[in-house]
Amino acid sequence: MTAIDHIRLSQQAKDQLIKLKRVTGIEHWNVLCRWALCVSLAESSIPPAAKIPSDSNVEMSWKVFGGPRAGLR
Prior knowledge:
Layout: E1 6-8, H1 11-24, H2 29-42, E2 59-61, H3 62-66
Antiparallel strand pairs: 1-2
C-alpha cells in the first residue's frame, strides 16, 4: 500500500465544501474532510471505480488532513 502525502480536490468537491462550510459554520475544510471520510467508511457499499478529476486549486497534505493524529499511520 502506498502512503498518500497530498490530495487535490475536484472542483465539485471544492464547491461542496464551500456549501458545507456555509451551512454548518465549520471553519476548516480538513475537519469537514475528516467527517466525510468517516461517513464514507460507515457505508456498507463499495464506492464505484471512478476517475475523479483534480481540477481545483485546493490541495491538502496528510498532516493537515490528519491533524494531531497525522503521525499515526
